[in-house]
Amino acid sequence: MAQIINMPRLSDTMEEGTVAAWLKKVGDKIEEGDILAEIETDKATMEFESFNEGFLLHIGIQEGGTAKVDTLLAIIGEEGEDISGILSESTAEAKPETMTDKKVTLSAVEESSSTEVEILEGVIVVTMPRLSDTMEEGTVATWLKKTGDTVEEGDILAEIETDKATMEFESFQSGTLLYVGLNEGDSAKVDSLLAIIGPKGTDVSAIAKNFSPAGETSSKKEEVPKAIAPKEETKVIEASQSSNTSTGRIFISPLAKKMADEKGINIGQVKGSGENGRIVKRDIENFTPSAVAQSSSAPVAKFVASGQEDFDEKPNSQMRKAIAKNLAKSKFTAPHYYLNVEFDMDNAIAFRSQYNSIPDIKISYNDMIVKACALALRQHPQVNSQWFDDKMKLNNHVHIGVAVAVEDGLMVPVVKFANEQSLPQIGAAVRDYAGRARKKKLGMDEMEGSTFTISNLGMFGIESFTSIINQPNSAILSVGAIVQKPVVKNGQVVAGNTMKLTLACDHRTVDGATGSQFLQTLKGYIENPVTMLV
């Protein structure tokens, strides 16, 4: 008899879960104790094992899909058992559509009512995946497969830009890529049609024409994304340097354009190897400026006459949109106030110099600040807190977010349990995170869970600035440059080194006196850094 498996409650605070990965597929034999899937909760990603034996007859939530606790997750039963009655009894809310269902609900483009279109055996509808917990829509940065290509399980289909990073999206099915629903550079909501995979030669035009995400209906005609045919133009970027077409336009993928901008490459000098001479990622990676300069007759950048108005348009990335949304929410919901201090850095400079004299050891001033903040936060849990409408959460652990500037904005990797780590350990972690952040290679778990944040612009020569609180934190510390200037010591004016810091606080959780006491403790560690080793 078929057994219904619902989304489990894997933590005491869990209200919904996300299927991070299925370790079994429909048709597989299941033994008691087998791991069915990896479920991402509000606290961790956990393995979910089966307590039943049989065959996996149905998957109710696709990978990347999120659903409430007790929502239909899967059905296990006898091989070939009829489960249509069970599925028909499930409500639309309890049964999200999946890529493994034989029928999906489609919005009629030519009619005002919804209809059902039969999906032939072996045809798989691939939808825009949810690749992060906050992702609402994704952008196709580049396709690594094109219509007509053979796709094997595990092949990378595309690179998807989310609100946090650009991530590879691999196929969990094998077949032929029959249809592509989004051009490179196009964005769509999670669960929108991304691609269709199936047996070679299968006509999927009806599916592509009428598809709509599960739970949506349409009473009016909607624009349907067109497949990328071999001879169709994709995204066109205007360029003044040169052209790889007779129309004066350069065809280039958004990812290749971004890479060219980062490397300072004149795309007018790059020969495209893609369809219709289109410049793609590999062309930028293999580009040699010196060779082109000697052999190419491509003109230099267009001369702009004095007084001429000119501009470039750059679409907002998913990361930039998310940053704007989160910072605006923080600024206009949390009552910010600022505390400014200036620390004597003479002892810190001497301490760092002596510490770095140890072979194979190198720490930065930022590492020292992270460590000092972590120790001070343990003594002032109010600053290490989070605000909720009905309560205040005082964290006993210290996870410090370190702001890192990247091409599309700002990423905040988190140094976990910073108070328990040594200075060299903190330094190694921050360097590793910063390097991978700039390459968008950080995992989602490495950017979550901060209880306090540090933003350091001292390396850019900025002496003093303020930051917007990284919610749900209650405070963020802005760190300026170390400046040499005259100071008074023991009644004498002497040369000294100082550093200005600004603590932005959420007044709902951190009062002025509390923030000031935290800064006094921090001052003790920074001005006498040997105390951090005690």
Give the gist of this structure:
Helix content is 20%, strand content 28%. It has 534 residues and is of the alpha+beta class.
Written account of the structure:
This protein has four domains: 1-96, Beta Barrel (OB fold (Dihydrolipoamide Acetyltransferase, E2P)), CATH 2.40.50.100; 100-231, RNA polymerase II/Efflux pump adaptor protein, barrel-sandwich hybrid domain (OB fold (Dihydrolipoamide Acetyltransferase, E2P)); 236-295, Dihydrolipoamide Transferase (Irregular); 319-533, Chloramphenicol acetyltransferase-like domain (Chloramphenicol Acetyltransferase, 2-Layer Sandwich), CATH 3.30.559.10. Helix 8 packs across helix 9 (423-438) and helix 8 packs across helix 10. It has helices at residues 84-89, 205-210, 254-263, 281-285, 289-295, 318-333, 346-355, 365-379, 423-438, 512-527; strands at residues 3-6, 16-22, 29-30, 35-40, 45-49, 54-59, 66-68, 72-77, 103-106, 115-118, 124-127, 137-143, 150-151, 156-161, 166-170, 175-180, 187-189, 193-198, 236-237, 250-251, 336-344, 385-387, 392-394, 400-402, 404-406, 409-411, 414-415, 452-456, 475-489, 492-506. The chain is of the alpha+beta class and 534 residues long.
